[in-house]
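Hey, resending since the last one bounced:
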Amino acid sequence: MARGLVLFLLLGGPAAARADQSAFERGRIDYVLHCSGCHALDGSGVEEKGIPRVKDQIGYYLRLPEGRPFLLQVPGLLSAGLSDERAAGVTNWMIEYFAGPSMPEKFVPYTAEEAKRYRLGKPANISALRKQLAQRLVAQGYPLR
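The C-alpha coordinates again:
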Protein backbone atom coordinates (compact mmCIF):
# COMPACT_ATOMS: atom_id res chain seq x y z
CA MET A 1 0.00 0.00 0.00
CA ALA A 2 2.78 2.45 0.87
CA ARG A 3 4.54 1.71 -2.45
CA GLY A 4 1.35 2.66 -4.32
CA LEU A 5 1.16 5.95 -2.45
CA VAL A 6 4.81 6.70 -3.21
CA LEU A 7 4.25 6.01 -6.92
CA PHE A 8 1.08 8.11 -6.86
CA LEU A 9 3.03 11.06 -5.45
CA LEU A 10 6.05 10.56 -7.69
CA LEU A 11 3.88 10.35 -10.77
CA GLY A 12 2.14 13.61 -9.97
CA GLY A 13 -1.09 12.52 -8.28
CA PRO A 14 -4.35 12.77 -10.23
CA ALA A 15 -2.83 15.19 -12.77
CA ALA A 16 -0.74 12.30 -14.09
CA ALA A 17 -3.89 10.65 -15.43
CA ARG A 18 -4.80 13.61 -17.69
CA ALA A 19 -4.76 12.93 -21.41
CA ASP A 20 -3.08 16.28 -22.11
CA GLN A 21 0.15 15.63 -20.18
CA SER A 22 3.16 17.52 -21.39
CA ALA A 23 6.10 15.63 -22.87
CA PHE A 24 8.10 16.60 -19.77
CA GLU A 25 5.52 14.98 -17.47
CA ARG A 26 5.41 11.85 -19.63
CA GLY A 27 9.22 11.71 -19.56
CA ARG A 28 9.18 11.88 -15.77
CA ILE A 29 6.58 9.14 -15.53
CA ASP A 30 8.49 6.92 -17.95
CA TYR A 31 11.68 7.49 -15.96
CA VAL A 32 10.00 6.41 -12.73
CA LEU A 33 8.41 3.36 -14.34
CA HIS A 34 11.19 2.20 -16.66
CA CYS A 35 14.52 3.66 -15.51
CA SER A 36 14.51 4.39 -11.79
CA GLY A 37 14.62 0.72 -10.83
CA CYS A 38 18.25 0.67 -11.97
CA HIS A 39 19.35 4.30 -12.00
CA ALA A 40 17.44 5.13 -8.77
CA LEU A 41 14.90 7.92 -8.33
CA ASP A 42 17.72 10.40 -7.76
CA GLY A 43 19.78 9.27 -10.78
CA SER A 44 22.63 7.96 -8.61
CA GLY A 45 22.81 4.52 -10.28
CA VAL A 46 24.37 1.48 -8.64
CA GLU A 47 28.09 1.52 -9.38
CA GLU A 48 28.83 -1.90 -7.89
CA LYS A 49 26.28 -3.44 -10.27
CA GLY A 50 27.56 -1.54 -13.31
CA ILE A 51 24.56 0.80 -13.44
CA PRO A 52 25.98 4.23 -14.22
CA ARG A 53 25.13 7.42 -12.43
CA VAL A 54 23.19 9.85 -14.64
CA LYS A 55 22.88 12.70 -12.14
CA ASP A 56 25.32 15.52 -12.96
CA GLN A 57 26.97 13.48 -15.74
CA ILE A 58 24.51 12.46 -18.45
CA GLY A 59 25.11 15.69 -20.37
CA TYR A 60 28.81 14.99 -20.77
CA TYR A 61 28.02 12.18 -23.20
CA LEU A 62 26.46 14.74 -25.56
CA ARG A 63 29.92 16.28 -25.99
CA LEU A 64 31.09 13.27 -28.01
CA PRO A 65 29.73 12.45 -31.49
CA GLU A 66 29.04 8.85 -30.41
CA GLY A 67 27.52 9.97 -27.12
CA ARG A 68 24.26 11.23 -28.54
CA PRO A 69 23.32 7.88 -30.16
CA PHE A 70 24.67 6.00 -27.11
CA LEU A 71 22.10 7.54 -24.77
CA LEU A 72 19.29 6.02 -26.84
CA GLN A 73 20.99 2.63 -27.17
CA VAL A 74 21.29 1.63 -23.53
CA PRO A 75 19.78 -1.80 -22.77
CA GLY A 76 17.10 -0.63 -20.36
CA LEU A 77 15.71 1.88 -22.82
CA LEU A 78 15.78 -0.61 -25.68
CA SER A 79 13.95 -3.23 -23.62
CA ALA A 80 11.38 -0.86 -22.06
CA GLY A 81 8.95 -1.24 -24.95
CA LEU A 82 8.56 2.53 -25.38
CA SER A 83 7.65 4.11 -28.70
CA ASP A 84 10.34 6.18 -30.41
CA GLU A 85 8.55 9.35 -29.28
CA ARG A 86 8.49 8.24 -25.65
CA ALA A 87 12.10 6.97 -25.79
CA ALA A 88 13.15 10.42 -27.01
CA GLY A 89 10.95 12.02 -24.36
CA VAL A 90 12.33 10.09 -21.40
CA THR A 91 15.89 10.70 -22.58
CA ASN A 92 15.18 14.42 -22.96
CA TRP A 93 13.63 14.46 -19.50
CA MET A 94 16.66 12.71 -18.00
CA ILE A 95 19.02 15.21 -19.60
CA GLU A 96 16.96 18.24 -18.61
CA TYR A 97 16.35 16.96 -15.07
CA PHE A 98 19.65 15.25 -14.20
CA ALA A 99 22.40 16.91 -16.30
CA GLY A 100 23.08 19.72 -13.84
CA PRO A 101 26.63 21.02 -14.47
CA SER A 102 27.13 18.51 -17.29
CA MET A 103 24.42 20.15 -19.42
CA PRO A 104 25.84 21.40 -22.72
CA GLU A 105 25.22 25.07 -23.49
CA LYS A 106 23.12 24.25 -26.52
CA PHE A 107 21.20 21.06 -25.88
CA VAL A 108 19.03 20.03 -28.83
CA PRO A 109 16.27 17.69 -27.66
CA TYR A 110 15.98 14.28 -29.28
CA THR A 111 13.20 13.69 -31.80
CA ALA A 112 11.22 10.51 -32.40
CA GLU A 113 12.87 10.13 -35.80
CA GLU A 114 16.31 10.38 -34.24
CA ALA A 115 15.34 7.85 -31.56
CA LYS A 116 14.18 5.41 -34.22
CA ARG A 117 17.43 5.74 -36.19
CA TYR A 118 19.71 5.38 -33.15
CA ARG A 119 17.77 2.50 -31.61
CA LEU A 120 18.01 0.51 -34.84
CA GLY A 121 21.81 0.84 -34.83
CA LYS A 122 22.54 -0.49 -31.36
CA PRO A 123 26.18 -1.51 -30.76
CA ALA A 124 27.10 -5.15 -30.22
CA ASN A 125 28.68 -4.40 -26.83
CA ILE A 126 27.09 -1.39 -25.15
CA SER A 127 29.10 -1.87 -21.93
CA ALA A 128 32.38 -1.68 -23.85
CA LEU A 129 31.15 1.42 -25.68
CA ARG A 130 30.12 3.10 -22.40
CA LYS A 131 33.53 2.33 -20.93
CA GLN A 132 35.29 3.74 -24.01
CA LEU A 133 33.18 6.92 -24.01
CA ALA A 134 33.68 7.39 -20.26
CA GLN A 135 37.45 7.02 -20.64
CA ARG A 136 37.48 9.63 -23.39
CA LEU A 137 35.42 12.03 -21.31
CA VAL A 138 37.67 11.59 -18.26
CA ALA A 139 40.73 12.14 -20.48
CA GLN A 140 39.11 15.41 -21.62
CA GLY A 141 38.76 16.48 -17.99
CA TYR A 142 35.08 15.74 -17.34
CA PRO A 143 34.45 14.47 -13.78
CA LEU A 144 32.67 11.16 -14.33
CA ARG A 145 32.12 8.88 -11.36
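The longest helix spans residues 23-39.

Sorry for the duplicate.
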